[in-house]
Amino acid sequence: MELVGIDLNHAPGLRKQARTLYHTAFPRQERLPWWILRLNAKRKGIDLTAFVDGERFCGFTASVTEGDLHFLLFFAVDDAQRGKGYGSAVLQLLQKQYQTVVLNVELLDPAAENYDQRKRRFAFYLRNGFRDTGYHVWEVGGKFRVLSTDANLDVARYREIFKKLSFGLWDVKLRPAEK
Questions:
Q1: Alpha carbon distances (Å) from 153 to 41, 51, 56, 68, 95
Q2: How far is it, in rounded angstroms, from Cα 142 to Cα 7?
């Protein structure tokens, strides 16, 4: 496996595949309009990246970097490539490049329609070096649990990520998780 990240601003063919994956992997209520992701990706520290193994499209990330904190706003592996180690490989690449990688996952709500999927996703991130920060965040698609490769999340820098995304117009609602 030779996984490589490619900037989607310079790869129209991969951009189309990433857009299709984005629309199938994330529920409508959790997505931002694709054009907003594309526009933001022209700004410094905000990236849309495709991951390929040779000619094979494996997945993509939409991310924001603030100093040495890297936030995965969206991360998806192509359905045809799931279970082949590509998701773990992407996370390993990012953890080598950045001191701290942060992402938000759906809450483990037994009443949720996709509860089993949520449990598998949460376990996947734990296996790949993420820890529960003890925080919940309210964002566009609802309430999420914040995971990080650093157990001591720098809350102020995490908030800066959302300010950067929203041109300083939005201060994320971040609270300690209920016990």
A1: 24, 27, 35, 12, 15
A2: 29
